[in-house]
């Protein structure tokens, strides 16, 4: 391989790579859709011209047919009047009109076929344009989605979660210690209150039992009258009453 061929190949490869980098598929597809739509008016104008030619030929055909009928009547009238010279002139014109009519009929038929083909081509182009437009819109949507995914991937690459992992672990450990300490304090406080309430309940139960015992002793006449009863009425405890009773019995 020659030097020039190698340089050309390198240049083409570099140019192609550069074009691939700057070429935006979304913009290219949008421009393609615009180009296809811009061609529709041109196609309509071309079809209109073909149809106009067909209509013109049909009009000429009608005129030539009318001229042929008129010349035929004039020839017959000239023959009846004995004017062979005039009849001969009209016959010459009739032959020319007949030739023109035959030629116009052929052209009109060809123009009709061309008109139908032009309409069919235009309709096929419009259908193909709609199909291509739908495909292009799908591709554009896919390109946008791919672009968003690329941006998301770049963002995820830029965010290195490993750098902040130690910070998260440290903060989590501190929060866990604070939560554990708070739960321990709450548990201790609840236990202290529970113990105090239990002591009060036990003391109240003892008082109720002593009061019940003292009531039984009173009913059985085992307690004396006087100071102990007053002490009970004044709100003394059963234990205090028992002490007083014991002292009274000893004096007796």
Written overview of the protein:
With 252 residues, the protein is mainly alpha-helical. The chain folds into 2 domains: 3-159, Helix Hairpins (Orthogonal Bundle), CATH 1.10.287; 177-251, no CATH class. The protein is 92% helix and 0% strand. It contains 6 helices and no strands. It has helices spanning 3-22, 25-80, 84-158, 161-219, 227-233, 238-251. Helix 2 packs antiparallel against helix 3 (84-158), helix 4 (161-219) packs parallel to helix 6 and helix 5 (227-233) packs antiparallel against helix 6. The longest helix is centred in the middle third of the chain and has 75 residues, at 84-158. The chain is elongated, with a radius of gyration of 60 Å. The N and C termini lie far apart (144 Å). The model is unreliable at 226-239 and 246-252 (pLDDT under 50).
Topology diagram in text:
Blueprint: H1 3-22, H2 25-80, H3 84-158, H4 161-219, H5 227-233, H6 238-251
Helix pairs in contact: 2-3, 4-6, 5-6
List keywords for this structure.
252 residues; single chain; mainly alpha; 6 helices; 2 domains; disordered C terminus; Helix Hairpins
Query: Unreliable runs, pLDDT <50, ≥5 residues?
Result: 226-239, 246-252
Helix content: over 70%
Order of helix and strand elements from N to C terminus: HHHHHH
Q: Tell me, briefly, the overall form.
A: elongated
Proportion of residues in extended strands: under 5%
């Amino acid at each position: 391989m020659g030097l020039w061929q190698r340089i050309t190949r390198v240049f083409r490869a570099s140019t192609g790579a550069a074009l691939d980098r700057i070429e935006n598929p979304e913009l290219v597809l949008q421009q393609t859709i615009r180009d296809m739509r811009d061609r529709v008016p041109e196609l309509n104008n071309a079809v209109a011209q073909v149809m106009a030619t067909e209509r013109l030929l049909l009009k000429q055909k009608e005129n030539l047919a009318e001229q042929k009928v008129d010349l035929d009547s004039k020839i017959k009238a000239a023959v009846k009047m004995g004017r062979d010279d005039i009849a001969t002139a009209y016959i010459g014109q009739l032959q020319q009109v007949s030739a023109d009519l035959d030629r116009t009929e052929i052209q009109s038929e060809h123009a009709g076929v061309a008109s139908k083909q032009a309409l069919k081509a235009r309709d096929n182009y419009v259908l193909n344009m709609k199909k291509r437009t739908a495909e292009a819109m799908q591709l554009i949507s896919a390109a946008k989605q791919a672009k968003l995914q690329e941006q998301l991937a770049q963002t995820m690459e830029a965010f290195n979660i490993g750098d902040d992992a130690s910070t998260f672990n440290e903060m989590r450990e501190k929060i866990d210690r604070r939560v554990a300490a708070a739960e321990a304090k709450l548990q201790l406080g609840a236990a202290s209150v529970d113990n105090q309430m239990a002591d009060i309940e036990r003391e109240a139960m003892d008082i109720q039992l002593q009061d019940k015992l003292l009531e039984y002793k009173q009913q059985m006449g085992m307690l004396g009258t006087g100071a102990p009863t007053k002490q009970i009425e004044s709100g003394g405890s059963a234990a205090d009453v028992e002490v007083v009773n014991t002292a009274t019995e000893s004096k007796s």
